[in-house]
Each structure stands twice: as C-alpha cells, then as structure tokens.
C-alpha cells in the first residue's frame, strides 16, 4: 500500500513538472507569442446563446416510453409535452436587434430566448426562416447590443485561420480555432441549397447558428452542420457563407420570405461519354432537356441540348450544382452562363425570374398524399415538385414519401407544377410517382 502511494505521488510530481515544462513562454527571443485573446474579446459579445421551447405531440421521438424513461421526461395526459433545446446566434445589426442563426435551431419553436455575453436574457421573435439554406433571422428589443462586422466570404481561401464561437453542449461562449479546410462543399444535407465552408475548428451540437470568424474579426460563416458518427466533433464542420446568409437575411427582412431565382429549365447531368454522343468535348455538365416558355432561359436564348458548364465563376458538373448555383441567387439577379452548343463554348447573360414557394397540401390533391406538403417549384431549375414536409404516420409517409423528395413525373407524365399534378390525380385512383431522392431515382405507388 505504501509502495503504491509513493508511485502515485511520484506520478503526480512528474505530471506537475511536465506541465510546468510544457507551458508556453510569453516570448520567443524578443518577439511576443501571438494570442487570439484580443480577437475573441472583440467578437464574443456579438454571439448569443439561444434557448428554444416547443410543445411536441404524441408520435414524436419524445413520446417514446424508453426515451422518456432515459431522460426522465414525465408523461402528459394530453399526449403533448414541452421540450427545450439550445443553439447559438450572431448579432449582425445591433441598432435593429437582428440576429442570424440556423433554421433548424428555431424550427417549430413556441418560445425563443437569447442570452447575451453578460448573461442578460431577452425574448426573441422569428423575422423569417429559410429551410433550404438553413438560415433564420431573429429580432430582439434591447439597447446596447454589440454586433459583429460581416466579412466577404467570397474572399475566404483554403488555409485561412478561423475561430468558431458558440454554445456547444450548453457551454456558453466556447471558442475553438482551426483553418478553412475546403470551399464550395455540397451534398451534405438531403435537400436544400448548399455552398458550405468546411473547417476543422471544433463544432459540436449547440454550435449551430454560431459564428465563424476570420482573423480580422469579421463574420464569414454561420456554423450549421458536422459530419460525425458519434455526434461529436471529428474535425469536419460546415458553415453557411455570409454571402448567402446575408442575401437570405435581407430578403427575409424586406419581404418576409425568400424570393429565390429561377432559370426555368429542366436539366439532367451529363458526363463525358454522353457529351461526346452530342458532339461536345465536355467532362461533365448540366444538359438542358426542356425550357419553360417565357422563362429567363428562353429570354437569354438558351436552347434544349445546350450543356451548361459554368454560372458566373462557379463550374457546373451536374444538375445539382446548377440548381445550387441558381437557387442561391435572388430573383432579378443577373448571371453569366457558359454553355456548349454544337461543340462550341458560348456565354450569355440571364436575368433570373422568381421561384415562389407556394405550399399546397396533399390532402386536397389525392387521399394517398394526405400528410404531405408541396412547393410550387421543386428547385430553381424547375425540375419537378418538391415535397417540403411529410407528417409522421400519415398516408403519404406510409407510402414512402419523404421531405426533400422531388416528384419529376406522375403516371409517366412529366410534372413541373401543382396544376399538372392535380390534373393527373383527379382522373386516377392509383398514382405512380417518379421521385428523385438525392442521387437516386425511384418509383412510388400511391393508392
């Protein structure tokens, strides 16, 4: 026992000596060691903690008996209960009280409260929210707020140092650092418009909606997602660039909705082999298979069989990249499109139309679609009809329909709007939906 104690004491002494020897010096030669402290002190007051309360009904994960027992959630006679979640936000306009955060942080909230750097708590209201880009805008009423300058995310380069500030696991105003690992990341979520900044700065649950800050103390991204098998940080995090977040914020404040750009084409991915069959030397691109009459594409002179390979400075390798490039622009925006026609590369300028997200309920269309909601346009490229939501255990859910699915044809007839879907559904008891789900295409039978 004495021997064990001595070894233990010796180990503690060794650790103490090692820790002392490992401490960083204040100076190296005549140069002081760099510190991020001044940058953190300047930007942290603009980052807020967000607490969301919402009522969940029976059928949600919270109503599962094992889930309730594990987390100690009491039963509710009415089948509903209040649950709380946490996230982060960034004050970007102190004068008007505007805060940027993620859509998924505040989605379905009954009450939202924010905590400032000085622990002051305020009630917040949602100005607007956009699921497709995962951006939401909140507003609070308060004097003496501190905001953060918004930087130009288009100037961010791979290798730039950045810091992430947020509320991971409820640990308020946690700061982590890293570099920008990649730019223009897509395919992270099942649906939506993506152009993420990838970083290895630690991002964990609760960081959502927090700040990604450059070394000038400017906001360059809103932290949004991670890739992780365990749910914790593995050095792969993603942030919505401020170029996108600022555009969405402006539209939500001005219009209360996002007026997304629309080119007005039906497209499909084409590879090098397919392009050669059309006499074009293109590795990959987006082939126009149909053009909507009176659309921006028609006005610009684009034609069926044109292969789009670039939008502004963004190279286009497939249909998804074209949908992102157009959908992240606003209606009325001008874009330069490079395409291949008859083996020759050409460019044209197009002024985008407006893709209005008018939501329709499946209940009014067909009994088998009950519980599903649809937008008027699937994507900015007009590829079909997007399923925006599916109620759990509804007829639509039971038949395999999911939020984010894009219906491109019904009973072998191409559909691009709700009136076409309604017309087919009125005359058919059974519907065969051709659905695009991510990179897959599948057929669903609706009775």
TrEMBL record:
Residues annotated as the enzyme's active site: 104, 134, 208
NCBIfam families in alphabetical order: degP_htrA_DO (TIGR02037)
Protein name: PDZ domain-containing protein
Domain of life from the UniProt record: Bacteria
Annotated Gene Ontology cellular component terms: periplasmic space
Organism name: Woeseia oceani
Signal peptide bounds: 1-22
GO molecular function, one term: serine-type endopeptidase activity
Binding positions (substrate): 104, 134, 206-208
Keywords: Hydrolase, Periplasm, Protease, Repeat, Serine protease, Signal
Keyword Protease: yes
Localization of this protein: Periplasm
Example GO biological process: proteolysis
InterPro entries reported for this sequence: PDZ, PDZ_6, PDZ_sf, Pept_S1C_Do, Peptidase_S1_PA, Peptidase_S1C
Record-stated family: Belongs to the peptidase S1C family.
């Amino acid at each position: 026992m004495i021997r064990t104690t001595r070894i233990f004491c010796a180990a503690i002494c060794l650790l103490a000596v090692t820790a002392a020897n490992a401490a960083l010096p204040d100076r190296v030669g005549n140069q002081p060691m760099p510190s991020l402290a001044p940058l953190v002190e300047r930007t942290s007051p603009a980052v807020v903690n967000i607490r969301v309360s919402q009522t969940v009904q029976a059928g949600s994960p919270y109503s599962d008996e094992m889930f309730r027992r594990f987390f100690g959630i009491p039963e509710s006679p009415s089948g509903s209960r209040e649950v709380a979640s946490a996230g982060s936000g960034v004050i970007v306009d102190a004068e008007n009280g505007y805060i940027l955060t993620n859509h998924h942080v505040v989605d379905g909230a009954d009450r939202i409260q924010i905590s400032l750097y000085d622990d002051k708590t305020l009630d917040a209201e949602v100005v607007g929210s956009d699921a497709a880009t995962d951006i939401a805008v909140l507003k609070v009423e308060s004097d003496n707020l501190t905001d953060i300058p918004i930087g130009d995310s288009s100037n961010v380069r791979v290798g730039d140092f950045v810091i992430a500030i947020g509320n991971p696991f409820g640990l308020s105003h946690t700061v982590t650092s890293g570099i920008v690992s990649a730019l223009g990341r897509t395919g992270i979520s099942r649906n939506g418009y993506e152009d993420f900044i990838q970083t290895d700065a630690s991002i964990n649950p609760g960081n959502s909606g927090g700040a990604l800050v450059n070394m000038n103390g400017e906001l360059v991204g809103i932290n949004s997602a991670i890739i992780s098998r365990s749910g914790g940080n593995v050095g792969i995090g993603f942030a919505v660039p401020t170029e996108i977040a600022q555009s969405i914020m402006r539209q939500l404040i001005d219009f209360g909705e996002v007026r997304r750009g629309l080119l007005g084409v039906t497209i499909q991915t084409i590879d090098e082999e397919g392009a050669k069959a059309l006499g074009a030397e293109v590795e990959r691109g987006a082939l126009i298979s149909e053009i909507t009459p009176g659309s921006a594409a028609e006005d610009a002179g684009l034609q069926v069989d044109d292969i789009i390979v670039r939008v502004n400075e963004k190279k286009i390798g497939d249909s998804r990249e074209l949908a992102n490039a157009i959908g992240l622009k606003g209606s009325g925006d001008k874009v330069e499109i490079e395409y291949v026609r008859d083996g020759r590369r050409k460019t044209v300028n197009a002024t985008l139309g407006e893709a209005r997200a008018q939501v329709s309920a499946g209940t009014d269309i067909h009994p088998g679609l009950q519980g599903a909601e649809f937008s008027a346009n699937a994507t900015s490229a007009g590829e079909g009809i997007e399923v925006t939501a599916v109620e759990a255990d509804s007829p639509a859910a039971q038949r395999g329909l999911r939020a984010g699915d894009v219906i491109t044809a019904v009973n072998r007839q191409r559909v691009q709007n709700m009136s076409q879907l309604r017309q087919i559904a009125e005359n058919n008891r059974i519907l065969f939906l051709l659905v695009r789900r991510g990179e897959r295409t599948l057929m669903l039978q609706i009775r």
